[in-house]
Amino acid sequence: RFFIEHPPTGAEVTFDEAESQHLAKVMRANVGDMVVGFDGKGMEYQIELTSVGKKKVVGSVRSQAEVSREASRRLTLAVALPKGDRQRWLVEKCVELGVARLIPLLTKRGVAQPVEKAIERLRRTVVEASKQCERNHLMAVDEGQTLEKVLASRPAASFLLHPSGEAIHHDAVVPASDVLALVGPEGGFTDEEVAEAAEHGCQIVSLGPRILRVETAALAMATLVTTVPGP
Ligand code: SAM
């Protein structure tokens, strides 16, 4: 599977340099080979390679279809991101589980304030993970946002994950097509942040009596929300 950033004009597709090198050097592709391309917006293409150079591979679209492998409902995760490799790992797993949008959440006790370069790296991870798990829509990765900003445009079904919240009930998720979940940093949300979210109508919920790491809490919530049958 190969990512096509610019959808084909007519039948011809030119792969970008990175994908061309991958095709030519790693996959040792030849003229006449069939490959699958996706544009990150839902379209999937069957492509026959017509020219294979080390830096430029060209193909011809033989068929195309809109193929959705999205989850049963749209989940936005706003997460106070952990550092380094844990951040990249979290993004990869969110893509696999079908999270629609990830917002790096800026909190009082947060450790990683994502800069532009880090966001770009995470967006590249989204493409790589989508290739691997055959997802055709790219998960959006936003710039960092404050709690206030995230709460300002929250959907009706919004949850702040907190070890001392009320046990989460699947029924709270079932009717919603759009869900927001907020996950705090290693040091946890402050009492003021929890109160602010509650005032804006967020449910303060727990995922059980153990303290989960940031990634575990985010992925447990993602599993719950994306696998409960759709509304
Ligand atoms: N001592 C911190 C506290 O009390 O919030 C622990 C923070 S925990 C390492 C990081 C984040 O994961 C929390 O802010 C929360 O959003 C989420 N989390 C961890 N365990 C959880 C649980 N059992 N239920 C719900 N959310 C949890």
From TrEMBL:
InterPro entries: Alpha/beta_knot_MTases, PUA-like_sf, RsmE, RsmE_MTase_dom, RsmE_PUA-like, tRNA_m1G_MTases_N. It is found in: Cytoplasm. It comes from the Bacteria. Residues 16-58 form the Ribosomal RNA small subunit methyltransferase E PUA-like domain. One of its GO terms (biological process) is rRNA base methylation. One of its GO terms (molecular function) is rRNA (uridine-N3-)-methyltransferase activity. Belongs to the RNA methyltransferase RsmE family. This is Ribosomal RNA small subunit methyltransferase E. It comes from Bremerella volcania. The gene is rsmE.
